[in-house]
Automatic annotation (TrEMBL):
Molecular functions (GO terms): DNA binding; DNA-binding transcription factor activity
Gene3D superfamilies: Winged helix-like DNA-binding domain superfamily/Winged helix DNA-binding domain (1.10.10.10)
Protein name: Winged helix DNA-binding protein
InterPro entries from the UniProt entry: HTH_MarR-typ (IPR000835), WH-like_DNA-bd_sf (IPR036388), WH_DNA-bd_sf (IPR036390)
Highest rank taxon of the organism: Bacteria
Keywords: DNA-binding
Keyword Transmembrane on entry: no
Presence of keyword DNA-binding: yes
Amino acid sequence: MQDEMGFGGGFAVVVVGAGARGHEIEEAIGLAGGRMLRRIAWEAMPAELMRQVAQPVLVADARGVGEDLLAAMLPRLEATAAALDLPVIVCLDVAEIDVVAAALLGVQAQLLCGPSVADLIGALVLARGSGSTPMLNAYAREGEGERLRRLNAEVARIAQALAELARREADAPAGGAADVEDRHSAFRAEPARPAPRADPGDAGAVRAIIRRRRMRDALFPGNLFEDPAWDMLLDLYAARLEGRRVSVSSLCIAAAVAPTTALRWIGKLTEAGLFVRKPDPADRRRAFMALSDAAAAKMHDYLAAANGSDPV
């Protein structure tokens, strides 16, 4: 049910799950300066976490886990972590976006879609600074000079580890397992057409705006124009006009950025009151995203003001 593993001193980490790519999680924990206390099976997670004495970082690996099991366990993971004040990192693939987002989107959890070791290191460094981990308590007991020395040593060590990872990825064949470039939606530019007027009540006109934004990616490197917040606002506004529901995974595609980045922005825009999450009444494992009424009104006003221009 669980494995013991130590990486020396440092902040504690408990891993939930971890299948075929568990070795990447272990490597990231070590490079980030942590130590893995144990690995817990998903089925045993609620009882095992409630017996936890320390305040570890939780890394839950949802990749390849069945939807029914995730739907049952993720709310309990969130509730237990909230009760014990534990930072949470969840690793997932595109196939798990909807079921994970239904349970954890909008809570204090880092959602990493298809993470590299470097992504995991960054998330672990953020997580260990978000709670009262043993390492932070140790820093508090030290003098200022010693604390700064240890912090500087940690920063230097992590920077060296990331540099080594970057070197390994640069040496790997393009498109291989170590290729961690953001994945963007491909779009082939259509022949130039007159720009439609930005009718705030015309879903077709809003979709045309979205298409023109994607045309830029066919002519220039796509990451030059990344603007996931605006792309998702446009997509949800068009969907509202069409009377169509949008899943979290579909909204991630509309964002035209890496899924992890899209999920982070969905969380931010939900916290800002622009997006609302609506559970699927037919399937508790799913949730849909929509514009709030206030956000929809602002989009209407913007497109009405831009009527006759090109509001790309």
